[in-house]
Amino acid sequence: MCISKSRTQYCIIDFEAFLNYDPHSVSLNINFWFPQNDFPVKIIGSCKGFILLFRRPDIVYIWNPSTGFKKQIPLPPLDDSESVTSLSDHFDHYDKLYGFVYDQASDDYLVVILSHVMTEPDGILVSKLKFFSIRDNRWEEIEGTNFAYFGDQEGLLFNGAIHWLAFRPDLERYVILAFDLMDRKLFEIPLPDYFHHESIMPYGLWVFGEFLGLWAKHYDSTVETWVMKEYKLNSSWTKTFVLPRNSNPNLYLYFSPIFSTDNGDIIGTMRGTGLVKLNDKGQQLQHCSFSNSLSDIVVYTKSLLSLPGGQ
Question: pTM for the whole thing?
Answer without folding.
Answer: 0.82
